[in-house]
Amino acid sequence: MDDRQVIFPSLGKTPRDDTAAVMKFYKLPKSFPPSVLAEAQAVAGRVSPSADAKGGRRLDLRKKFIFTCDPETARDYDDALSLETDRRGNRVLGVHIADVSYYVKPGSALDREAYRRGTSVYLCDRVVPMLPEELSNGVCSLVPGEDRFAFSVFMTFDRNGVMIGRKFAKSVIRSKARFTYEEVMKIISGGRVSARGGAKMPRGAEKTVRAISALAQQLRSKRFALGALDIDIPEAEVLLDDAGEMTGITTRPYDESHQMVEECMVAANEAVAKELWTNGVKIVARLHEPPDPEKLQMLRAELRGLGVKVGNIENPKVFAQFMQSIKSNPLYPTIAVMVLRSMKRAVYDASAIGHFGLAKRYYAHFTSPIRRYPDLTLHRQLEAYIDKRGGRVPPRLLATWAEQSTAREEVAAEAERALVEIKKFRLLEEQLSSRQVLDYDAVISKCQPFGCFVEIPELAVSGLVHISLLSNRYVRFNESDQSLSAPGCGSWRPGMRMRVHVARVDFRERKIDFVPVADGRRDSKIKTSRKGKKQWS
Q1: Cα distance between residue 77 and residue 289, in whole Å
Q2: Residues 168 and 107 in one domain
Q3: E strand or H helix at 10, and its extent?
Q4: Does one domain contain both 48 and 195?
Q5: 229-285 per-position pLDDT tens digit
Q6: Which of 15, 93, 486, 532 is the most buried (most CB within 10 A)?
Q7: What is the rounded CA–CA span in Å between residue 145 and residue 487?
Q8: Do 216 and 361 lie in a common domain?
């Protein structure tokens, strides 16, 4: 997550115009060039995965129980999982990734366009894909019941969750089931789910899912013990109706089903990066450097202002333990954002490797070649490596890939955040316009002489409650403990909860003001936007 302020684009008069305005502002492509579409149709139409499997050119995994786990609304599936036990009783985790490199050859029209886009962009109501639909939602998508080309990573773990072996193979798979996160969570919790379309659920499917989840939790615990940071900030999701109108905002859960997939992908990314880097093959790594000591000093001072005690957070393990210890603190979302501000941003790099946040010495992106260009380049290098063709790429070319991929990722992230922020402001402004404001639970994150800032976890937004709305009496700012107080009315300090509703929405300044709800009654000092006032600059 990047908490830098997002610049609102100039928008039209209705919410329907928001996405188009954001795409224009960030210069996101509306369509693919004809040459790219023609090439996509051509390569998608001449592929025969079964022929490659029969010819022995690929490892045939079509009889194995392999499944995908994605959101209900997902349209492309680029990763799948399997688990078996070897003769010694060790667990062999299989991570099977769509083999996009088979279709997208270096220097082709598809490759040049993928490089230019760098990544898929996930907006509220649409995806701006890196690859045309014939590939992303077609022959590259690991849909159940269909033969698909894949690149498989097999990782052997002992009973302690230590990776003791890794192998790689070009493969042909046939996914046996497509699970949603909700279905996997139900299985993990001991329930059963039915196969889609009336199909029969493979024998042992639920047992395999639970075993992979158990392994994932073991890997997760080991990462945190090594100093990985567990920063869990709710991600806002804008809800839209069939006409594209916004109906509300919710937060996406991050439960054991999501953790299962994440840990498996992290393990595969690490395995590929370690295999290539330690054997002299430089790659486009996913680099996350440790924070600067000065930043940590500033963080410590900010936390002290919130009344939060910290230890020697220069030590990664102590830092990780601190993040775990404050999970139940009502100020956790605020603290998590502060921590992210102190961190360096993860980037793509061709000259250094390592991921501080994940506590990984070797790390690169391999598991999403449908939507990220660095993953595609890594597939090509790994294929050349296992085929005894070296896999080495000129350093200057690697540096170019890294720079372009980082730049495109930044644009995508800013566009995605901008549209979500716009929708949040739209939602609150509509409440004011209709005078049907809703009450929200809030947590005071910071106090200043002019009021207190509050966080609304339900909306993942923050705003100000002015001192004039806290009390009719004189409100004093107490610098010693960073609190506000009024004689006979109580005090307000970071970490306290309060009930609020929106009072003012200022698009131009990107500010939201809230009013406390006292004793179940709304404050009468609600300020609505002026009719006819232009809200967008």
Answers
A1: 30
A2: yes
A3: none
A4: yes
A5: 988 776 778 888 776 677 777 777 889 999 999 999 999 999 999 999 999 999 999
A6: 93
A7: 70
A8: yes
